[in-house]
Structures are given as structure tokens and as C-alpha cells.
Design goal:
This protein has helices at about 10-30, 35-50, 55-85, 165-170, 190-205, 205-220, 225-235, 245-260, 265-285, 290-305, 310-325, 335-360, 365-385, 395-420, 435-445, 465-475, 480-505, 540-550, 570-575, 590-600; strands spanning about 95-110, 110-120, 125, 130-135, 145-155, 170-175, 180-185, 390, 455, 520-525, 530-535, 555-560, 580-585, 615-620, 625-635, 635-640, 660, 665. It is of the alpha+beta class and about 675 residues long. Strands 1-2-4-6-5 form a 5-stranded mixed β-barrel. Strand 12 (about 555-560), helix 19 (about 570-575) and strand 13 form a beta-alpha-beta unit. Helix 1 crosses helix 11 (about 310-325), helix 10 (about 290-305) crosses helix 11 (about 310-325) and helix 14 (about 395-420) packs antiparallel against helix 15 (about 435-445).
Length: about 675
């Protein structure tokens, strides 16, 4: 029988582990069709066993072992979900909680923050989990022990998987508490190092540069301003801020070269690399991407030191098995999925791309960079479309230009951070990175100003699995005829193209009847879409999620009924993300409108009350407050009346195609001749 898969035992095991975890995810998320996809993977693996050149005994053994692995990890995932999210033994009764404050803040708001505590005891009973406790901002420092009396312990509601909490082992949120200090403490060694690095960066660089540098070093983006993090997303460079293979491979390479010069034996060599990489992962909070890169890097280093065979797919398979064995619900974590898929795509596609570029005499350094970047983009495409609904257009260009610059900055930061961790007085050395940060910051900021910086992409859904199988089929690991490889490559390209085209076609929403909306989304039935209301720090994520879930492709106009200067970055983010043609601020404050226009990173219109396209937005005011908006587009008239308004007080509504009243259709008593249609929809954001 011909061999169709380049057989690797760890790859078969990891594929079975992923299938089992996928079954658990299917049950948890009630997407039962994924069980069928998991069965397809298992059937493919078993078929491949019998089509591979291995012994009959091994085939029979593995054909039993692989289904057992699938069942085991299905059960492990479901059990872990119940234990971590569903199981709350404290119910609704008040309890007493004590714990030690860490240096991590889960979230923060005006005057408060949710500090993370470890060494957690609830009613005197120690638990292995951590908790988030809401306290006054900056009231407690790392190392302090606090007491929360008469408080309530809550777990995640299960509607959406709490990825951040799961990564950090934060099971509980403490609410309704009277928090007090038990004793002052001091940060541990890791917290001290992190504080010294962050303080040293803040004292010697601008705030934006310091936050970017700290994210490059540790993967912690919590202090980055929204405008900067958006620029990294639009340019396709967000991966440089997630500690992963780029960072770990550099670290291992640098340490290995130093140890070779010192002529250490291979056992000491591996020990030093292991300690160094583990310490760096601890600094980065043991994120999934960092752990994946660390496991792969250490596996490669051990193989090299002991003259063993090692390749990317084998090392990736080992990382999948180890991580899912330790944390089964990582299968629901976007960071884990995208990190694994990126490396899988590089293993499958990059070498073939590099060879193709070599045939046209492309310099090796360029062909290597282009092939890896392209493979990464192709690999994570189904998940960027699912999680974000977008795809950066200029990602390849920005990666080719800026990844080397950011890696140089990372190298300098890493070198300087070693003495700073011990002697904080040396932090002035961070200033040597400033010219490079200025240059990289300026070029990255261009991403949102370029035309069509981001494409809206239709989520692939179940076809994401088909897409990944096609990608695997194009690789050197599937030993089939050349024309089959070509057919699969064409299929892969066709799926990507179809998703982009479908993502930019007009499509209606599902019907919604909601009240008291913060944002009203109006589709005029002729391809134009309006967002009326507010785009703020608190609701921009909801707008984005609503558009993705309802397969909406873009926004033509944003009509802001209320706005403040602090919301400008979020308005800009939405405008770039959805290709907005016009942003109209329906307000009397001309100075604020001019500031909004300056803050937008793409040439859209901020005007009163008519935008450049000629579509009318006629606002009506009473006592200085917005009372109604009449929209005239494509011979249609749409009247929006804010919540609590009375139609009889304002514009004549006769002749309007529809009236949106109080954030919902049809709630008003409308005069004769006024109708409502199913072409206009609203969105409520909690």
C-alpha cells in the first residue's frame, strides 16, 4: 500500500488530542457539528496508519490507542470546564476571603481596579485558584495581604469562555465586599523584576514607547493606549507583541552561542537554556504562545545537543500534547489556537514557498521572510476571520520592513534588562532603543492611514476545518502526486478569495426587536449602513462582536449623537475597521468636531450636518439637545427619535419610510401613512 503521510508518531498523537479537545469544545459551545469534524480527523488518521509503511502490530495498536486518546481528552475538557467555570461550592452565601495581592490588575475603571490575589483562602479553606477583588485604585500594592468580609464569590457565567482568567488560573471574582488590609508585604522576586523593568522604561522613554517596549519584552499590553494597539492590529504586527517563537528562538540562539564559546558540556548547556527560557516565560506570565515556543525551542535544543532528529511538526506536536494535557480548555483560547495554527502553517507551506521564490533568484533573506510571513497569514486566516472578521491588507509589507526593526529593539531591550533587573540605576541604558522606537512607531502608525488598510472577511465557520485540511494536503507531509498538491493549493486560494468577496457584499441583518439602545444600526436597504448613537470605550467591542456574529460587512456612515474627546480613538478604530465613508458629529460644538476630524487616522468626513457624499442627515434640536434625526438616502426617509421623544412634537412623520423610536421599531403610536419595514435594525449594548 502506498505511504500517504510522512509518518510521525507525535503528530498522530497530537491530532488525536486536538480531536478529543474539539469534541469537548463542541459540547460546551453547543456546536455539535464539530463532533463530526473530529470524527473525520480520527478516520483520516486511522486510514493513514494502514496506508503507511509501518509494522502491522503498530498499526493495530495505534488504531486502538488513537480513539482512546480522543475519548480521554473529550472527558478531560468537559471535566475541566465544569471544575473551573460551573462548579461554585460557595453559591450565594456571604463568605470571608483572604489573599495576597499580586502585581496583576485584571481590569480597571474610574477610581477602581480588580486586583488579582493568590494564596487564596475562602472561609479559612485554601484553594489552588486565584481571585479578582475590586478595590480602590492604587490602594494596595503587590505583596499586601487583604481581607474581604461579607463578600460573594462568583465564577464565569459560561456564556463566553474567560480566556484571560483561565490563562492566569483566576476562577473567582469577589463582589459586594468590604475590603481591608491585613498586613503590608513586599513583592516577590518576579514582581520586583517586572516593576524595575517597567519603572526603568517609564523613566527613560515616552509613555507610548515605554508601553510598547514593555509589551515587546513581556507580552503585557495592558498599559498600551488604544490608538497604538490598533495600529499594530491594522499593520498585521500584533504578533510581535505576543511573546512567541520570534522571541524564544532568539533567546535560545543567543544563550547557545555564548555557551558554545564557553565550551560547556551538553548537559550543562541544556540545563542553562531550560532555566533561562523558564525564567523568561515566568516574566511573560506563562502565556500559551510563550509556552508553545518554549517547548518547541527546548525540544529542538535537546535534539541538537544529543544528535537526534527534530523538525518543526514533531516539536509542535509535542507542544500541543503537553499544553492540552495541562490545560484542556486552551482549545477555546484564541491565543493558543492562532499560535499553534501559525506554526503549523509555517511547517506546511513556508518551505515550498521559499523554493518557489528561489527559482526566480530571490535573495535568501527575502525569500525566507516572505515565505514565513505569507505562510503565517494563510494559516491563521480562518481564525482572524472568525475572531476579528477582518484581514490587514498590508501585513506582508509591514512585516518585511518592521519585524527586523522590532527584533533589534527586543534584542537591545533584553540585553539592557539584565543589568536593570539587578541594578535599577542602569535603566538609562534603555534610551539607546529610542531612535529605533521612534522610527518603528512612525511607520506602524501609517497602517491606519493607508487606503483599504483592513478588509472585511466572511467567517468560514465549519469550512475552517476543510481549509486547514487543504493546507495540510499542500505540504510535504502528504505524499501524493504533484497535481493533487496543485489542486489543493488552488482550492486554498479560492476559499480565501471567496471569503474576502463574501465579506464585502451587502447583506441584511437578522431581525432584532430591542429597546433602549446605546447604538442604533440602520440599513437603508440599498447597501448603505448607518450607526447612530455613541461609539465609546465601553461599547466598541459590542459593536464589533455584533457585526461579526450577524455577518455584517461594513459601515458606511457613523452619526454620533453624543461624543467626548476620550472616545476619539474608538471611533477611529471602528471607522478604519469597517471602511467608514463618513463620520458625522450631530452636535453644535464646532471645536469638538474639528478635534474629531484631526484625531481620525483616515480621510473621513466630520461635518455638521451634511457629509461629503451628499447624503442628508438632518438633526433637530430642542433646548440644545438632539431630539430627532431625519436620514434621506436613495429616495428613502428614515426618522430616528431618541428614547422618550414623542413623534407629534417634531418633524412631520408622514412620508417617512420608517420611524425608529426610542431605540426600537414600532413602539410609538404612529400617524396614518407611516409604516415600519424589516430593513432597519437596532443593537442593544449592555
Amino acid at each position: 500500500m502506498p505511504k500517504i503521510i510522512n509518518f510521525r508518531l507525535l503528530f498522530f498523537a497530537s491530532a488525536a488530542v486536538l480531536s478529543g479537545s474539539l469534541v469537548a469544545y463542541a459540547v460546551i459551545s453547543e456546536r455539535y457539528y464539530l463532533i463530526a469534524f473530529s470524527a473525520v480527523i480520527l478516520a483520516f488518521l486511522i486510514y493513514s496508519l494502514f496506508a503507511s509503511e509501518i509494522t502491522k502490530r503498530t498499526r493495530l495498536a495505534l488504531s486502538v490507542v488513537l480513539p482512546v486518546i480522543v475519548l480521554a481528552f473529550s472527558g478531560a475538557g468537559l471535566l475541566n470546564y465544569h471544575t473551573f467555570i460551573k462548579n461554585n461550592p460557595y453559591g450565594d452565601r456571604p463568605v470571608e476571603v483572604t489573599g495576597r495581592v499580586t502585581d496583576y490588575v485584571l481590569y480597571e475603571g474610574e477610581g477602581f481596579e480588580a486586583v488579582v490575589i493568590d494564596d487564596l483562602r475562602i472561609d479559612g479553606q485554601k484553594t489552588l485558584y486565584k481571585a479578582a477583588v475590586t478595590v480602590s485604585k492604587s490602594k494596595y500594592g503587590a505583596g499586601d495581604r487583604i481581607l474581604a468580609k461579607a463578600c460573594y464569590v462568583q465564577t464565569a457565567d459560561g456564556r463566553s469562555f474567560p480566556s484571560q482568567e483561565y490563562r492566569l488560573n483566576i476562577k473567582f471574582r469577589i463582589s459586594g465586599s468590604d475590603v481591608s488590609l491585613i498586613s503590608e508585604g513586599s513583592p516577590n522576586l518576579l514582581e520586583t523584576v517586572r516593576a524595575r523593568l517597567q519603572t526603568g522604561l517609564s523613566d527613560n522613554l515616552t509613555k507610548t514607547q515605554a508601553d510598547t517596549a514593555f509589551a515587546l519584552l513581556t507580552g503585557d499590553r495592558s498599559d498600551m493606549d488604544f490608538q497604538t494597539s490598533s495600529a499594530f492590529m491594522f499593520s498585521g504586527l500584533a504578533h510581535v507583541l505576543a511573546v512567541s517563537g520570534l522571541h524564544i528562538s532568539f533567546l535560545i540562539s543567543a544563550v547557545s552561542r555564548l555557551l558554545k564559546k564557553l565550551r560547556t558540556n551538553r548537559f550543562l548547556h541544556i540545563a542553562v537554556i531550560t532555566v533561562t527560557v523558564t525564567a523568561f516565560c515566568a516574566l511573560c506570565g506563562f502565556s500559551p504562545s510563550a509556552l508553545r515556543a518554549a517547548i518547541m525551542g527546548l525540544a529542538g535544543a535537546v535534539a541538537y545537543a544529543f544528535f537526534l532528529k527534530s523538525d518543526m511538526l514533531t516539536n509542535l506536536s509535542l507542544a500541543v500534547i503537553v499544553l492540552l494535557a495541562a490545560r484542556p480548555l486552551y482549545i477555546m483560547d484564541a491565543g493558543f489556537i492562532m499560535s499553534m495554527t501559525t506554526v503549523f502553517a509555517i511547517a506546511c507551506i513556508a518551505r515550498r514557498l521559499a523554493k518557489a521564490l528561489g527559482r526566480i533568484h530571490t535573495p535568501k533573506i527575502i525569500s525566507a521572510s516572505v515565505s514565513v510571513t505569507t505562510a503565517s497569514t494563510v494559516g491563521i486566516f480562518p481564525f482572524t476571520s472568525e475572531f476579528f472578521g477582518t484581514q490587514p491588507v498590508y501585513a506582508l509589507l509591514f512585516n518585511l520592513v518592521l519585524v527586523p526593526v522590532y527584533m533589534l529593539i527586543f534584542t537591545l531591550l533584553l540585553i539592557v534588562s539584565v543589568p536593570v533587573a539587578v541594578f535599577p540605576q542602569t535603566a538609562a541604558l534603555y534610551r539607546i532603543t529610542q531612535p529605533f522606537l521612534y522610527a518603528a512607531e512612525g511607520i506602524t502608525a501609517l497602517s491606519g492611514r493607508l487606503p483599504a488598510a483592513v478588509l472585511t472577511v466572511f467567517p468560514l465557520g465549519i469550512f475552517a476545518g476543510v481549509y486547514l485540511l487543504c493546507m495540510f494536503g499542500t505540504s510535504r507531509y502528504i505524499l501524493v502526486r504533484g497535481h493533487v498538491h496543485k489542486a489543493l493549493t488552488v482550492t486554498l486560494a479560492a476559499v480565501m478569495l471567496a471569503a474576502v468577496i463574501a465579506g464585502n457584499l451587502p447583506a441584511p441583518y437578522e431581525n432584532n426587536r430591542l429597546t433602549n439602545s446605546a447604538v442604533i444600526i440602520v440599513d437603508d436597504g440599498k447597501g448603505a449602513t448607518f450607526v447612530i448613537g455613541e461609539v465609546t470605550e465601553t461599547n466598541y467591542r459590542g459593536i464589533k462582536e455584533f457585526f461579526i456574529e450577524n455577518r455584517r460587512r461594513g459601515i458606511d456612515y457613523i452619526l454620533l449623537t453624543r461624543v467626548k474627546e476620550g472616545d476619539f480613538p474608538y471611533i477611529n478604530y471602528i471607522s478604519v475597521l469597517y471602511g467608514v465613508k463618513g463620520v458625522v458629529m450631530l452636535d453644535f460644538d464646532r471645536g469638538l468636531a474639528d478635534s474629531l476630524y484631526t484625531a481620525l487616522s483616515k480621510p473621513v468626513t466630520a461635518s455638521l450636518p451634511r457629509d461629503a457624499s451628499g447624503t442628508d442627515f438632518a438633526p433637530q434640536y430642542r433646548d440644545g439637545a438632539l431630539r430627532s434625526i431625519e436620514i434621506r438616502s436613495e429616495n428613502k426617509k428614515i426618522l430616528y427619535l431618541p428614547y422618550g421623544a414623542k413623534p407629534s412634537e417634531f418633524l412631520p412623520v408622514e412620508g417617512c419610510d420608517t420611524v425608529i423610536y426610542g431605540g426600537a421599531k414600532g413602539d410609538a403610536i404612529l400617524p396614518p401613512g407611516v409604516r415600519t419595514t424589516e430593513e432597519y435594525f437596532v443593537l442593544t449594548l449592555d
